[in-house]
């Protein structure tokens, strides 16, 4: 990046008065998921409108991207001009003043159109630090045909008891038909995203206001016990290595009765070109335990942010505003149909009749996102923000270590009680190291 | 074995050897087959006959232009190896022909530097790269990989050079050859095979290096290891595409390895096995 | 005169390599050593402070630490066992007169050219996957329940993948050694009525001793640093069942962004690696003369 500019400056100096516009190169770091890859292919309107801006892409697998980008931003490296980061990183990095504030986006961007919970998750003290490319919450997806055949119904807002009963009724292992598919693959963004949301809906919390870990609580015990119980009895084999992708495949191939996961999955499972069950998918709100008014509070948004170390912040702002604009959504809709529009970010999308008609999951997705409270994710008092994660820098490490224990429990290598004890010990240790309570 | 072997025995051995070879090669073969399947076929269960579609390759190419990382891999792998040879040849030469008491210790120390876990020194190296402007440059990676493989290069060359009999040198000296003549006319021809195999092994090691090459590059210098990192585990299971990218990443080095197998045998053994 | 001239010339020729490696080793090592005494988290650089021995104590008291060392040993020894024994058997087989020896040899050495992350991806998704892997298909064909390799036998699965990558290397070296075996001696032994087994143990094996040493030495250096295969497949789990020392450091550095802790782990690993190196050099270095 720097080299390019320097050599360009050299070239300009040589041609003396020549160059009227000086091209700027934006280095954009993205994850390799479908929506981002599609965006790379659809940048023509932007580059035509901005001939002086060149786009360079660095596409990496999520974890490698996170490592790479974190190292760069923490060392003030300046290798990137636009970063693709999630709702986890934004508040933490914003507090370090690593991100450029985005309060001055042009009026036609219509910041007020962003869904309030998403906007809030990307803001610190009412200052926006990243713009959402697409956002997701979590919900129940289930096979209406299997439910009917088994004689069970799932209400719009089910309880865990209801889910468990339905999973039991839909299970027929002889036909490789499993009542429930949930994440089991260890990782803070894999099984712990689900389990943290589930724990929230059981009334559990990660830490008490003094930052003391709470895995020794009755709520966590109930969460993990029920999770293991459901997965062992009605889940697919090898569940401890299933993440989002694996469950998506299983569901698309008709092997799952119920799948509780990110709302973006809805557009994949209802896509007749890749899903064998596209016609028979029903949706419901993320379950809760009886008497606990909490539906998990899962909220994630892949967002575009500009590092403070970027040497082309103005060009970068133009780009992030374009990529998350209403125009881009319309462009995708025109090219690939409304169902493929990046979901979860704008009110206007959910008010669009074309979108509502094309996306049967739109209403439930909106309910889930609007219902997600990332500022207070547990019914008990908590010192942290974040929904299916805890927005502190240490969470990646702690969440993954705890996820390992719970995954081992799912694999049958330890009991729920042992896993919770290990999680409690590990988290206590890490929190002491990090110097909490701060 | 000089004795004639009965045809039946030979057929028996042949079948056994081919079975073992195919078993070992199977994962690679299956990746190649999968890369020629459609995505639906790829997860549909075991099937050795793909539909021979090139769709996955086309998609991979449209998402990430293969040519740039490929060229970067070639330049970085060859550049770092050549640079390492330039530094290592004189050193190994000196150690082989004018050893001191400490030569062996130095050699062992060199090898032990290879045991330092790369990730522990990432931040220092990252900062150095930022300060010196080496970040995301091919020359930066050439230097890092050169240093990384230098111990192995010195070792290999040392053992090769030691195989060159000292008497030949003495004979040349008797004939009044100068040191320069000695090197150019006597030693170099004898050392060429050793240098060639060292070159080969190190190109492979540098090509397959996947830590520094990802951590120290963004766009300009990113080689095939970064190329593959942009295809692993995206949203959904795209195994045909992943296989296609894998095949594209390993094919050049695989083909090169096949063609240079003989030198490799020599090179891999540090010349210790004659 | 000539000798002294040669000696000083030799010193001059050696110097660049040694100086470069010294810099390469000492500069990062010194910086790592310095960091290992700091409370330094990449995500919170503002609160960096002097930590004394705390990072070491913390790393050492990690419940995963001893498990990781144990796993490292199992991993290295397991892979060495498979590759050496497997390598000898395959080398013996390929050395026999067979049709298409060249092609067989090419097929056998191929895994060595595959990048570690690619190898891990292939094994994880296409071979060992409990639903879509070839091994699962095989199990289903025989009416068995597919094995979930990475959950049930995590370390073993890693060993298999790594061994697959290094088996060609061992085979190749052992094969070369085998081919230089004196045929006449072998024949004489056969004439004397020595059985195939005793011929192998009294002639072939001693002849290959040096090659086996080379295999062990080189592989150990690379096997101590295995992490990509673990990262791609099991992430060190379930629990810590497949976490080795390098991966533990990787986790501290890249997941926790704990530079101080990772640096301390790095220093510990360097010390342990040097123990292994010294031990190896003492044990096998003589064979290499």
TrEMBL record, chain A:
This is Sugar ABC transporter substrate-binding protein. It is found in: Periplasm. Belongs to the bacterial solute-binding protein 1 family. It comes from the Bacteria. The keyword Nuclease does not apply. The lineage of its organism: Bacteria, Pseudomonadati, Pseudomonadota, Alphaproteobacteria, Rhodobacterales. Pfam families: SBP_bac_1. One of its GO terms (cellular component) is periplasmic space. It comes from Paracoccus amoyensis. InterPro entries: Bact_solute-bd_prot1, SBP. PANTHER family: ARABINOSE-BINDING PROTEIN-RELATED, DIACETYLCHITOBIOSE BINDING PROTEIN DASA. Residues 1-18 form the signal peptide. Keywords: Signal.
TrEMBL record, chain B:
Residues 70-260 form the ABC transmembrane type-1 domain. SUPFAM superfamilies: MetI-like. Gene3D superfamilies: MetI-like. The chain crosses the membrane at residues 12-33, 74-94, 106-129, 141-161, 182-207, 238-259. The keyword Transport applies. It comes from the Bacteria. One of its GO terms (biological process) is transmembrane transport. It holds the Pfam family BPD_transp_1. This is Carbohydrate ABC transporter permease. It comes from Paracoccus amoyensis.
From TrEMBL, chain C:
Keywords: Cell membrane, Membrane, Transmembrane, Transmembrane helix, Transport. It comes from the Bacteria. The chain crosses the membrane at residues 12-37, 68-94, 106-123, 153-176, 208-228, 259-281. Its main location: membrane. Signal peptide: none annotated. It comes from Paracoccus amoyensis. GO terms for biological process: transmembrane transport. It is a multi-pass membrane protein. This is Sugar ABC transporter permease.
